[in-house]
Design brief:
The complex is a heterodimer of chains A (212) and B (218). Chain A is an alpha/beta fold and 212 residues long. Helix content of chain A is 34%, strand content 31%. In chain A, the strands form two sheets. Chain A has a five-stranded mixed sheet with strand order 5-2-6-7-8. Chain B has one domain. In chain B, 32% of the residues lie in helices and 40% in strands. In chain B, strands 1-6-5-4-2-3 form a six-stranded mixed sheet. The chains are: A alpha/beta (212), B alpha/beta (218).
Chain lengths: 212, 218
């Protein structure tokens, strides 16, 4: 089929404008995905049996921004990461249906509930740098096997990744991956010490913070 | 086009499309490396600096250079090592001085993993490339009648990288190799832009890779 040269030129320009528009919008909308699998932490497990509770707010957490233009299903991934962290930190982990009930029948020494208090990120335009920066504010709640809350351990994990020319969402996903890896680093190096001291055996006032 | 002429044209275009780059390397080794058997070397980038962060593309380039220049040496990539040692070489926990490796190795499970990987030396890469002194103006137009650009842009490229070599068994620094490459990039446009880019990062990677490769290969 022969195409008239003028029509061909208009079509080329439309394609060029389409490509430019797609490139401009690529970093601002869409879905963020974390593809990387997380390795098993290298750590000597503590000789405890830990009950683990993930609330639906934690395991089904979805970050949305600008009327759903940007969505990030973070819950499944962060639960998978914490499964690996807790699995490495303790000799045995057992899922429990609720943290604030009597869980002694499960044979656990303590119950842990990770809570994501805030997920936030800054784009290169906001920081005037070449990086996407992610912060994830967590709190680990410690319960006795009887369901009494005995301690809180808050921490913030960070990750940053250099911006990519076309796909800003990929940089955001990578920065979040690094923040999750940083969360593992904090848990293994600092939270382990909190548990080693067996602080959950002595009830703490609810607002007392056991920070590193 | 005959093959000789094609090669000549390709070479001429390559030279024309690359800005001039000057690179220099400095080496300060306290002692020679002493590798035996299939002991491994790990290439790591320093992620603890809040301001400077080495590009992934640089560490990948250096890994490739070392693979080709020190082929017999067992070189472990950063990603593999960090996964194998997870999370002890994440930015929050990675040792910042050679002596601190000893503290890390006091933990039996970590020492066992390092032994399994047979790691002898860590090479920490620190540095980055940047563009400065951007000057000039270029205007581009696009209309149904056609498009084009007019003007000239220029900037200075500067790449500074440093490789610190640590002996993980002795917990001691072995030496430092540093490289600096500078050049000026120009993009003149008279209708079509013609980028003449000074590839300082590539030059730094090659010069550091050559020096480090020679040291590792003994």
């Amino acid at each position: 089929m022969r195409i008239h040269p003028q029509r061909r030129e208009r079509r080329s320009i439309r394609v060029l404008f389409g490509l430019l528009t797609a490139l401009t919008l690529a970093g601002c909308a869409g879905t963020v995905v974390i593809e990387q699998e997380f390795p098993e932490p290298v750590v000597q497990p503590l000789p405890f049996s830990a009950g683990i509770y993930y609330s639906p707010q934690f395991s089904e957490y979805v970050y949305t921004e600008e009327e759903g233009k940007l969505t990030f299903e973070l819950g499944t991934k962060q639960q998978a990461v914490y499964d690996k962290i807790f699995g490495a930190l303790f000799e045995q982990t057992i899922p429990v249906p609720s943290p604030d009930q009597d869980n002694s029948s499960y044979g656990v020494d303590l119950v842990l509930e990770p809570v994501l208090e805030e997920y936030a990120f800054l784009s290169p335009a906001e920081t005037a740098t070449n990086f996407y920066a992610v912060s994830m504010k967590y709190q680990i709640r410690l319960y006795s096997d009887q369901g009494t809350i005995v301690g809180y351990w808050p921490f913030v994990a960070y990750g940053k990744d250099r911006k990519r020319f076309v796909n800003g969402n990929q940089s955001l996903g990578e920065a979040t991956t690094l923040a999750l890896r940083d969360a593992a680093a904090a848990m293994v190096s600092q939270f382990k010490g909190v548990v080693e001291k067996q602080q959950w055996r002595t009830p703490l006032p609810p607002n007392e913070v056991s920070s590193p | 086009m005959n093959p000789g002429l094609r090669l000549g044209v390709t070479a001429a275009l390559t030279v024309a499309l690359s800005g001039c780059v000057t690179a220099r390397v400095e080496e300060f080794m306290q002692t020679d490396l002493d590798m035996s058997g299939d002991e491994a070397v790990v290439i790591l980038t320093n992620r603890q600096d809040a301001v400077i962060e080495t590009e992934d593309s640089f560490s990948e380039c250096l890994f490739g250079q070392l693979r080709s220049r020190a082929g017999d040496v067992n070189i472990i990539s950063e990603n593999r090592f960090k996964d194998e040692m997870f999370p002890w070489f994440e930015p929050r926990l990675a040792p910042t001085r050679a002596e601190l490796v000893n503290v890390l190795l006091e933990e039996p499970v970590i020492a066992k993993r390092v032994e399994d990987l047979n790691v002898r030396y860590l090479v920490w890469i620190h540095g980055e490339s940047e563009a400065r002194n951007k000057q000039g103006v270029m205007t581009c137009t696009l209309s149904p009648a056609g498009g084009g650009c007019l003007g000239v842009l220029s900037w200075d490229n500067n790449s500074n990288y440093e490789a610190s070599i640590w002996d993980i068994q002795a917990g001691e620094p072995m030496g430092i190799i540093s490289t600096e490459a500078t050049g000026t990039s120009v993009v003149p446009a008279l209708g079509v832009p013609l980028p003449l880019i000074a590839r300082t990062k590539n030059a730094s990677c090659k010069s550091l890779g050559q020096q480090l490769g020679d040291i590792l290969a003994g």
